[in-house]
Q: What sequence folds into this?
């Protein structure tokens, strides 16, 4: 390597490291208890979830793999726990810890009131699915129009369609995360998962389409980015065309959840009868991940693709 090339590589290293950093999820959005089951006295006030006064329990509805939790809270009196850890009495305290995985649980005791200002989860890095140099670990579905290439920036790009790029590996219960940019207006793509290897897009699909009705992002067009396509629309479209966004998918048995830019937008339980194909029923067994090339207008780029099995040790 020449001195010039070596210098360029060193300058690029911080950007590469930043791109390989897992992106955090907001487990509470300050607007609702979407994705949670809450019992006892609870309310939403000034962008905070308030548990109490008195005994209350809030449990996150879907399992998450190992990671880190950062909680900002106020506990004026009494007792409370987060992930079985006791919380201190005080105002706007920050507590962080290594999360062992599972369903996060918050509790308050008698004569207690806990205000959650923010609750952030960051997964472990897991397995990288794209090396930024080649399509190693992926297979292009044959005889289709899409072109899958690696850009000079080290991004995975898909143009034209239809088409499908499939992983070699398969996963059942997992957290998947990628960054994506739609290089045009209202372009359509998606991430298929638990799909059947060697068959064309036979799985669940997390939709990618940054379009909404009128000026209301809570009214997605064609299900919207983060939707479980044809099963549950996104509750709002968070992402915007021509801007990088992060898409996170968690699949846990027949329960599926998605986040866009750290905001949860889908929480779907597949109550259909069990089937070998997710298009025909509830599929909980392992399958491939794939990137969809939708149509001739397709032009999207992906980077920072990774997967973490829920049962990662």
A:
């Amino acid at each position: 390597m020449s001195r010039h090339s070596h210098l360029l590589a060193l300058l690029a290293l911080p950007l590469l490291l930043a791109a390989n950093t897992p992106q955090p999820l907001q487990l509470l959005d300050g607007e609702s208890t979407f994705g949670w089951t809450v019992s006892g006295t609870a309310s939403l006030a000034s962008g905070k979830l308030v548990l109490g006064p008195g005994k209350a329990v809030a449990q996150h509805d879907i399992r998450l793999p190992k990671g880190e939790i950062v909680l900002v809270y106020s506990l004026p009196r009494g007792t409370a726990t987060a992930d079985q850890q006791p919380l201190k009495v005080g105002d706007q305290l920050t507590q962080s810890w290594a999360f062992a995985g599972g369903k996060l649980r918050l509790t308050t005791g008698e004569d207690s009131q806990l205000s959650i200002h923010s609750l952030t989860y960051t997964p472990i890095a897991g397995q990288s699915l794209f090396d930024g140099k080649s399509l190693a670990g992926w297979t292009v579905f044959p005889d289709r129009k899409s072109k899958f290439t690696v850009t000079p920036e080290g991004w995975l790009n898909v143009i034209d369609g239809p088409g499908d790029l499939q992983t070699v590996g398969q996963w059942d219960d997992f957290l998947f995360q990628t960054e994506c940019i739609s290089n045009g207006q209202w372009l359509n793509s998606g991430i298929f998962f638990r799909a059947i290897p060697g068959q064309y897009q036979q799985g669940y699909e997390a939709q990618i389409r940054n379009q909404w009705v009128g000026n209301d992002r809570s009214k997605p067009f064609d299900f919207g980015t983060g939707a479980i396509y044809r099963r549950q629309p996104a509750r709002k479209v968070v992402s915007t065309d021509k801007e990088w966004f992060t898409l996170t998918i968690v699949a846990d048995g027949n329960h599926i959840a998605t986040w866009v830019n750290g905001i949860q937008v889908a929480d779907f339980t597949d109550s259909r009868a069990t089937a070998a194909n997710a298009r025909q029923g509830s599929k909980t067994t392992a399958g491939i991940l794939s990137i969809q090339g939708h149509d001739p207008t397709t032009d999207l780029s992906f980077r920072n693709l990774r997967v973490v099995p829920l049962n990662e040790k």
Summary: The chain has one helix and 24 strands. The first strand starts at residue 25 and ends at 26.
